[in-house]
Amino acid sequence: RDLAAAPAPLPLADVDLADNDRFTDGQLPWRMFDTLRREDPVHWQPEPAPHHGFWAVTRHADIVRVDRDPETFTSTRFTNLEEVDDDQIAVRRSLLETDGLRHQALRRLLQRQFTPRAVAAYGDFLRGLTARTLDAALAKGSFDFVAEVAADFPINVLARMLDVPEGDTRQLIDWGNRIIGNTDPDYADVLLESAESERYRNLPFRSPAALEVFAYGRELAAKRRGGSGVDLVSMLVNQTPRDGIALSREDFDNYFLLLVVAGNETTRHAISHTMLALMNHPEEMAKLQADPSLIPNAVEEFLRWASPVYHFRRTATRDVALGGKRIKEGDKVVLWFASGNRDEAVFEDPYRFDVTRRHNDHLTFGKGSPHFCLGSSLARLEMRIMFEELLPRLAGIRLTGPVRRVRSNFVNGIKELPVEVVPA
Ligand code: HEM
């Protein structure tokens, strides 16, 4: 089962947020977060060499404080738990790893494509795609929900926004798995912890698959440059730079890669976790089936519950006090959004999956940061349409085997969710 109640407490000495193995367990991460929020909310987490350790920020209020203060807590270092030489940073910096005016200029290139209004234009396409995906999967009776439903859906949406052929979506999924799954032996070309990964230290997520994504993106860019397309690639390569900030080839590479991985894995796992939660809480599923108008509000609870991104990273630009600790300039500071999403100071009964929950101030997309998820409106729409289409099609659904999780303390991912359905 997934979490139906607050997990059992864990001694502080047993907490290790740097150990990816612990994140293949459905409960252990939450137990670690609970212990930290209670006993040591800004916790120094050592890491094996060559890493230097990081501050784990686990309470909602502290996370928001850091997220709102990009001057003290910069993103211009790496957002995942790897170390890269300063002189290599420039070649692999996407907007996620940029601050200030440069970040604004990069973000502005695609901001208008991701407003609630802009993404609403994809509503009919999304509904058609969801219906096709679900009809094909449900006809099978027993299937892996991740492979048949959750994995294809977000990437097909991105394929449309990037205007890449539908036939390439499998390839995009494979790249996403290999890049984000850099700590999972099922996916990684080279495990992040291995000595061999040193060879790829200047690539995003130290993944050689990044080179394939770069090559693919460049080919698209070359075809679209100078054209009149309105897809995301055309928007990136054909806009006049603003504020004197031009988009270099490396900027494009990293932007393209970010779009491929950011909007793919995250939404996939949000959908899978929601399906699991609904199976574990049939009374909540019944409420939504009886009254689909509850779904838009429920999506916020889906997102809080799923917390597909465990953390993002910042670096302190000066000495600063946080939660009674002295953080030093240059220290790595990690915001555990997932932990904030179970903070009892903010959420009443945080381990209750409650589709009618109000005042759902979750941190799933960040909070108050200039890096707040660019794709949040799209992700919300995808989630809403997925469950508006799925729930009326189901007379019953049950889990038929073990839930397999991605080995990663970065992405809270589900690899396999075997189900059996009775179509309505
Ligand atoms: C940034 C989560 C879906 C594109 C972020 C951040 C989070 C996040 C937590 C903030 C990173 C930080 O603070 O450093 C999620 C979750 C999603 C999701 C949980 C699904 C449920 C999407 C989608 C897209 C997308 C569908 C579309 C392509 C981005 C981009 C950024 C970002 C481009 C970087 C923004 C910036 O640095 O200014 N996302 N995301 N995300 N997300 Fe999402």
UniProtKB/TrEMBL annotation:
Keywords, ordered alphabetically: Heme, Iron, Metal-binding, Monooxygenase, Oxidoreductase
Organism field: Streptomyces inhibens
Highest taxon, organism lineage: Bacteria
Cytoplasm among keywords: no
UniProt GO MF annotations: cholest-4-en-3-one 26-monooxygenase activity; heme binding; iron ion binding; steroid hydroxylase activity
Coiled coil feature spans: none
Membership in a protein family: Belongs to the cytochrome P450 family.
Protein name, per record: Cytochrome P450
Classification via Pfam families: p450 (PF00067)
GO annotation terms (biological process): cholesterol catabolic process
Lineage, opening ranks: Bacteria, Bacillati, Actinomycetota, Actinomycetes, Kitasatosporales
